[in-house]
Amino acid sequence: MNIEERLLNGDKRACARLITMLESNHNEAVDILKRLYKNTGKAYVIGVTGPPGAGKSTLTDKLVKELRKQDKKVGIIAIDPTSPFSGGAILGDRIRMNDLSLDKNIFIRSMGTRGSLGGMSRATWGAVKVLDIFGCDFIFIETVGVGQSEVDIVKTADTVLMVMVPNLGDDIQAIKAGIMEIADVFAINKSDLDGADKTKLEVEMNLDLNEDMDFRPPVIKVSAAKNKDIDVLLEKIMEHRRYLEETNKLEDKRIRNNKMELLKMVEEDLMTLIMDKAVKDDLLEKLARDVTLRNIDPYTAKEEILKLIVSE
Amino acid sequence: MDRPIRVLVAKPGLDGHDRGAKVIARALRDAGMEVIYTGLRQTPEQIVAAAIQEDVDVVAMSILSGAHNHLFLKVVNLLKEEGVEDMLIIGGGVIPEDDIPFLIESGIEAIFTPGTSTKDVVEYIKNNLKR
Q: Domains (ranges, CATH) in chain B?
């Protein structure tokens, strides 16, 4: 059996290998996805984001266990930062999800961000498609909510769950982070800590300032470590899903997401093209030097680089 | 294809000491590898499941409890049962000299004992990948 048939049969190794191939932008993997794209669209994608240490992995672990009670097949893509210095990464989200490893209806994959030129968004969206074909009913994408590309990724989920914790700062932090806008559901994790009510109140007050909300994001206090109110949170996520489906907004949202995905893929390909040429011919190095020495201005230098692809 | 080497750093069995595993994880990260750390007290089954889902190039196990002959072997055999042949399997920890030949014969390709320089581990991995 080839990898394509094995994936359709729910073979975990085929699923894993295909994700690896997509991560390295392997043509064969892309061809497989071209053929199997019609098999996608069944999975519901939940993005989980929030500050480091908020408990995203632990909460995902608990939500997935809740979904397993309903016999759902679940995929998890856990993204951790790649070191910009060495290009290496320590991917530690599995530590909080070890109980899930052996369940044959759960697939967990850790990914490094690999830098903005590493094609993280493409690899993540590719992995979502692979897990969809693999037969997942739900796919979680979990990532730290810092960095534009991380936010872009999580934004393309059907439902975005923002995990917050008490005492990380005042409500100004929530406003300036620009994270209020992308969340469909808020979880205030570590609800046993002092300050949980205050954090909830601050989020609610921020939401009060939004006008014309068809769906007001619910704010739920939970404790992932103590497995408290996870069912309530899952129900709120489902409520958001029902709202999207009943108002036909899910399709609108997915069109918007696909638009972003297409643009992002084009952008990444163009960047690769430019980098390949400019870096290979030392043009970038030379121009940067000339700009520094005031031999050329940066705007003309930029045009020089653009000429590399515009002429094609 | 140029892609980072992916390594599963795993702690099989019941000992609760992962300083060594963390030092190795950090060194591999600094060498540009993607390290997936399982955390403490993993069963061989969990390690194999993680290795497969993460599609790693290397499984690096650390053990200090003395159960290496049993647990390392179990991981090797489970991987074999799954038909995995392209992963480099290595081990480290407090492992008596006398046990090493048996482990190597059983399919652990290298054993690193206390005092090993992290550079040696990095070099070994880079030179012995099976992909």
A: 6-128 (3.40.50.280)
B29 touches A at CB < 8 Å = yes
Task: Determine, for residues A86 and B30 on separate chains, whether the beta-carbon distance falls below 8 Å.
Answer: yes
| Matching CATH number, A39-247, of 2.30.30.60, 1.20.1440.230, 3.90.1150.10, 3.40.50.300 | 3.40.50.300
Which residue on chain A is closest to B39 by alpha carbon?
A95
Q: Which residue of A has its CA nearest to B83?
A: A13
Asked if B118 reaches chain A (Cβ–Cβ under 8 Å), the answer is: no
In this predicted model, which residue has the larger pLDDT, A44 or B131? A44
pLDDT in tens, A204-235: 988 888 777 889 999 999 999 999 999 999 99
Beta bridge partners, A74, equal A106, A138
Strand ranges (E), B1-131: 6-10, 34-37, 58-63, 88-93, 110-112
Q: Considering CB atoms only, which of A88, A102, A110 is closest to B33?
A: A88
Reported ipTM: 0.91
Rounded CA-CA distance A88/A105 in Å is 30
- pTM for this structure? 0.91
